[in-house]
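Quick start: what a row looks like.
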Amino acid sequence: MAALPVYRWRLAPDGYATRRQLRAQGLRPGGQAVAAQLERPRRRRGPLVAYLYRIDRAKPVRPMTAARWAALAKANAARRRCPACRRDAGYVIPASLGTCTTCAFPDPDGSERSH
């Protein structure tokens, strides 16, 4: 197995890009293997590593279909629904709480706040 070429941070040659850089250009890796890596040294820990892909082998991003849009909308709606009271909270429920703030922090006097 051949070792990947390693470049220092911001010194990669032209023709390589990270996943985010590819996405900004409307591209995706398209099944190609990692072509190289960037390393940014840090003082007390191991280096930060970013994987690079060849731009000439990248493929265009697949377009969103109506079914994909519908699935994404359904998933986002599920993230807004409180599992305790089953209401739409109006915001994405924090994973740290697991419920809406009304259910997570009920009023001590027993009166219910509106969502």
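That is the whole record. The chain has a mean pLDDT of 91. The longest helix spans residues 66-80.
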